[in-house]
Amino acid sequence: MINILPIFLIIPFLGLLGSLLVHRRNEALHSRVAFGTAGIQNITSITFTLYWVFSGGEVLNIKEFVIYSAPEYEFFVDFYFDRVTAVFLVVGSVLTFLITLYSRYYLHREEGYKRFFNTILFFYLGYNIIILSGNFETLFIGWEVLGLSSFLLIAFYRDRYLPVRNAYKVFSVYRVSDIAMILAMWMSHHLWHHNVTFLELNNYDLVDAEVHSHYGMSLFISIMILISASVKSAQFPFSSWLPRAMEGPTPSSAIFYSSLSVHIGVFFLLRTFPFWEHLDVFRWVVGIAGFGTSIIATFIGNVQSTVKSQIAYSSIAQIGLIFIEVALGLEIVALIHFSGNAFLRTYQLLVSPSTVTYLIREQFYTSLPKETKRTGFLRKLFNSIYVFSVKEWNLDTYQFRFLWNPFKKLGKTFYFLNSKSTGFILGPAFLIACFVLIEGSMSEDTLHLFSNVLAMIAVLLSLRSFIERKSPIYSFSLVAFSHLWIALAVSFNEHFSYSHTIIYISGVAVSLVVGLAVLIKLRKSESHVDLNGFYGHVYEHKSLAFIFLLSCLGLAGFPVTPTFLGEDLIFSHIHKDQIWLTLLVALSAIFSGLSTIRIYIRLFLGPHTKSYHPVAHRSS
Fold it and tell me: How far is Cα 557 from Cα 567, in angstroms, rounded to an integer?
């Protein structure tokens, strides 16, 4: 029975390959491939789950293969199956089957018909990797696939301004979730001294002893888990991205932001519950976060003017209640609640276009205002809550004011750095740092201080790339150089095998060379190649756009590229008490990823700069 688990990844993977090989104008074959893949997966998952239940329902775990092994470090793919996996597997297969059936007619004659089904199958592959994962590393692979497919589907209407802009907003919030996951993996390595599996976390006595003997480390891991789960499930204060994600087609909104993707945070909490159930304070934090989100999302949802936004905030409110159920240890109740909420929200979104069409006359002609008395404290309180809810509690404003704008202002202070001055100042500094590393004559405290300084330079370079407006080549190169400074900073921190650094730098170097080649070719073909606006060059350079996206993902550390493996290796060499170095490396990773995707969006997506292409209005 245990050997069947990889089948649930092989089926969507083969479906994705088949969809990629079909010609883009053959709509019938595209829909049949997607529909057939989802149907086969649906039958297989239901049959296997029923057989597993009647066979006793024992937990299954399989260590599939090792990707990389080193002393005190092993990166391996591990699969795990229990009742949580069973519920998410069956619900996911049924809903994906229904969405593909619905989409084959809903998207008929749509320009991106093939692209839509390719992305849906890519998403479904990532979803299955997550729910079948047996350790953090395997889960993170699917986590990144889910984030990328989400970004691509939000920007599905890539000739419009708002979908592209909102796709980048969602990606920027997702990036925080990704780094929180990496930090949880980093501290987990120091806590367990190996790549811990979810099967080991079910050993109550072992986990209880480790948690109470290393309370601070355990609390840090738990907080990172909560941040990752809250971002992915749009919990407070990260709730505002979910309505923005509704810019994609209705079927993708149904499968992503009402049923499956938005509940992945719940899955992550359920999967790691055996670890953080020993932390009573943290369980209170999870419950309070879910309760606060439910209250705020309910108020906001009641005043939304679009049906998609209403459904989005209703889903957020219900997920907040599921967080409370998970914190109370009510696993079965949480699974039932997840299943009901997923099916209900999917149904609501799929029928919402028809409902709006049927009720449009009633909305315009039969709506009567309620008579209210504007006196008393309760009325003033109600009006205040109403205004806050209309403004969505200013979540977007606070997010940009306190999270992104300070870093943008910091980056603008170094705007004087151009390609010549950067090379003149940092080039000799890098060579001197390499010489000092080879000499190795400093004390340990001095080396750690030197590591922090080098990591600060890496953050500076990534911030400078993030605010660059003129040259995409310069911005792209700065991201690669920030990776070099990170590798050098951690090398000062701890002496380890140079093979780890080589793995890290090899992914960066290949992505840099390929990306620069694309940018140079694009600059020779087009007159508008800067970062001041959206140029939509994907219309005339589809191949270049795809290749550059791959190079951006490689530079951002997308699994399972050498850059991602190298980042995980590099993080494992940062000591558990080096909080500043960890924070600086994490910040550099966040802004490096945001900068590369920003270059891709600005050059290849958005309304086309040439007037002979159809251009959507900015407000569409």
Answer: 7
